[in-house]
Amino acid sequence: MIRLLGRATSGNVQKVIFLLEEMHLPYRREDYGRQFNNTGGDYLKLNPTGKVPTLVDGDTTIWESNTILRYLAAKNRSPLYPSDPARRSYVERWMDWLLASVNAPYLGLFREAKKPAGERAPSWAADAKEMVAHLQLLDSQLTLHPYIAGEELSIADIALAPIVARCTSFPIELPALPNLKAWQERIASRPAFKKATAV
Questions:
Q1: Is 91 exposed, middle or buried (0-12, 13-18, 19+ CB in 10 A)?
Q2: What are 134-137's contacts with CB under 8 Å, separation 24+?
Q3: Of 96, 196, 94, the residue nearest 142 (C-alpha)
Q4: What angle, rounded to 10 degrees, do the helices at 103-112 and 155-167 form?
Q5: Is residue 18 a contact partner of residue 199, using CB atoms and an 8 Å limit?
Q6: Please, are residues 136 and 177 in contact by the beta-carbon 8 Å criterion?
Q7: How much is the pLDDT for 199?
Q8: What digits encode the pLDDT tens for the residues 79-120?
Q9: By C-alpha distance, which of 78, 76, 50 is closest to 156?
Q10: pTM for this prediction
Q11: What is the pLDDT of residues 141-178, one digit of tens each?
Q12: In what order do the strands lie in the sheet with 54-57?
């Protein structure tokens, strides 16, 4: 059985749970993370970064959440990850965009969001402005079709959904974003997403 090592509250772990549930693959999630004091020692042999998630599938061990999504979808020939290179590129570019563009302001806001407004880092305003721009870009993309990379759900949606859910809940001023909100409602109605984020 697939082992998923990582805490249930991690957005990156939630991505993987979302896909595993969507594909109806049997798995066992195990609590790993800094708060469990178990991401050093032997864990580093599985994942040298000491972060979560890590996926163990028989003799194969994978880390980095988006790589895990690609592996699972490709191994199981899932339509969530098209085999046609052109169609696949539409999926992968949004997964890469998440890491290259959204991740930095997301982490900045995540670290500061729970602090009183007067105690937040000076970078808060710039991170908030950048995040709004990214969310507006997504909202514009979603005028073209109901899902991030096309007419059907893909691992681009699965990678983005748990993170975007957090981004839109930060205490920052957001524009209306009607298309993004409609996409979030479609995603939130899926049993796999409900299971992935039920913490």
A1: buried
A2: 134/101, 134/102, 134/105, 134/167, 135/164, 135/167, 135/168, 135/174, 135/177, 135/180, 136/175, 136/177
A3: 94
A4: 30
A5: no
A6: yes
A7: 81
A8: 999 999 999 999 999 999 999 999 999 999 999 999 999 999
A9: 78
A10: 0.96
A11: 999 999 999 999 999 999 999 999 999 999 999 999 99
A12: 27-30, 2-5, 54-57, 60-63
Please give the radius of gyration of the chain, using alpha carbons only, rounded to the nearest integer: 17
Residue 185 is predicted with a pLDDT of 98
Query: Do the Cβ atoms of 146 and 186 come closer than 8 Å?
Result: yes
| Token code pair at residue 62 | 């994978």
Write out the chain in H/E/C secondary structure.
CEEEECCCCCHHHHHHHHHHHHCCCCEEEECCCHHHCCCCCCHHHHCCCCCCCEEEECCEEEECHHHHHHHHHHHCCCCCCCCCHHHHHHHHHHHHHHHHHHHHHHHHHHHHCCCCHHHCCCCHHHHHHHHHHHHHHHHHHCCCCCECCECCCCHHHHHHHHHHHHHCCCCCCCCCCHHHHHHHHHHHCCHHHHHHCCC
